[in-house]
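Fold this complex.
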Amino acid sequence: MSKRAKLPVWADVALIPLINVSLAFLAAGVVVALIGENPLAAVEVLVRGAFGYDEGVGYTLYYTTNFIFTGLAVAVAFHAGLFNIGGEGQAYIGGLGVGLVCLALDHLMPWWMLLPIAIGAGMLFGAAWAFIPGYLQAYRGSHVVITTIMFNFIASALMVYLLVNVLIKPGQMAPETRDIAEGASLPLMHELFAQFGIKITQTPLNLSIFVALIAAFLVWVLIWRTRWGYAIRMIGHNESAAVYSGINPKKMVVVAMAISGSLAGLVAINEVMGAQGRIVLDFVAGSGFTGIAVALMGRNHPVGIILASLLFGALFQGGAELAFEFSTITRDLVVVIQGLVILFCGALAYMMRAPLERLFGLVGARANKSEEAR
Amino acid sequence: MKKAVLKTLALSVVLASGAQAADLNPAVVFDMGGKFDKSFNQSVYDGMERFKGESGVNYREFEVTNASQREQAIRRFAQRGANPIISVGFAQAAAVDVVAGENPDVNITLIDMVVDKPNVQSVVFKEEQGSFLVGLLAAMKSETGTVSFVGGMDIPLIRKFACGYAQGAKYANPNATVISNMTGTTPSAWNDPAKGTELAVSQFDRGSDVVFAAAGGTGVGVYQAAADSGKYAIGVDSNQNYMHPGTMLTSMVKRVDVAAYNSLKAMQDGTWQGGFQSLGLAEGGVDWALDEHNAALITDEMKAAVEAAKQAIISGELTVHDYMSDNSCPALD
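Structure:
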């Protein structure tokens, strides 16, 4: 074991994820080959579909926006030692907040005045939905994993009820609200570019990607530069020690869950105020769950989360492209490929660590004998 | 290998013919249920396959997995010269509206919803009429006077089924009790056979002895429960009588396959037209299914009654209340 060396930081944060992603693609390639398609052609379609032209890039970044929000949400809870599986429901309820505000005020003000209010409403609704499981965990001992999962179902039941009976635009089949007024929904990127005379293809990508990036920065500030962040990390590492340093773990569990929920609620800025322009049924479409994989892969660090979100955004968009180009590749295979990436990058994240440490130890020993002696 | 070559050949033929706008280059966008949902989407798939078998013209397809992909997929097909595009399901209406506006040369057939554009053919069905007939049969077959309904998600479309069914049951037996349950609130409600079984069994416990499922793949569990408990079940969308001969009373068929097939056929013949079609009993868009699998279950008396009701609906003598017209269902309250 003496041959093992501590990995340099760059290997830990860049090399290992890269190797894991490559392994996942290798395994996916085998699956593609097994169903009789050329894996290299498939990879080419996937990469070109995700990054090769402006429409693909637009969709990739649009998915990325959702995943940044939900990834951050999971990460904040994770720092406090909590596993928030309720991002799906929190985002859905956040959509209710954003939607109600937009539908109430869209004829009174333009989008740039509405945006801060909508962000506030989305965060508030999302936070409220996560607050209850947080409170139950802290003061009643109901495990947050169970309660957040169940709250996903309550959220979808509530939203179906509201959309079918209360919020539906009268006289239509689809359970959707009316459209948010023209000037009040978040401008799509192609509209924005058009104002500067640049023509790009229409995609659902909208301004909220900047909201996502700002949120990522603020989460970094929160976790590593504030008192709350310190307390959150503290209870995550060792709750008893946290008590000795004067932290109230119960309160911090509730705070961490509320912050987590508020970040998930921001998905609605992208979907309800941006891409769809109205509340539609099931607009979250699994982003809340993908956020768990994103946070795992991004090591709960905002920068890692942004990169992991980009990868998953590319997989979603490139995967759709695959299903489009190859008649033998259905949407289910796309899920398989995404699952393999999650398996290698999330569940097996440490598999490559030991061999790599030995390798570095070996190289290090040759290069520097004095270190070996120590 | 040979298959792959053939496929490339077929694909290149399709792509090459796409260059001429008037040529037939069909594409279909299935909705979230997926093309093998044994029900609604699959029925469209059957229609597409039938046309492919008859004409040898291949088609392209896409199954959406989230709300944003609908517009993306329809637009992509339009840009690649697909014509006509079959859009399956009411949820695609908003996307069809946008893409049809952008591409006035592309013909789109939208199933289950109406979009008012000259190049859109909107096909909707009078589900309440077909459901009325099977409701009538259910109440006549029932010995307990209680019949039941299992829906997928609680959305207006499914309430329309439930409402027609309840009216039919009450028409046959004014004292009939109709129990109605929905499977769930997430899209998984369309494909949850276990939950379907559970609901059907609980309805049997409450006295029901005929159950009608309008719940996509969930229905499979409902029919199984009926077969296991010796009760009767009614299929939906496709003719599902064959699934459990002896306990499948009938099926409420909704001919989305015909809508898809007709669109392609009309395109081929050069007679494709935009506009609005509402297919009811009179047009053969909905009906009840009678075949060798359920012939023994339908008595002459039932057959006479259901055919009489059918004629009365077609002639306008008997009107079935449409839930969508005022968002209420007096028969089910």
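Residues 63-310 of chain A form a domain with the ABC transporter involved in vitamin B12 uptake, BtuC fold (CATH 1.10.3470).
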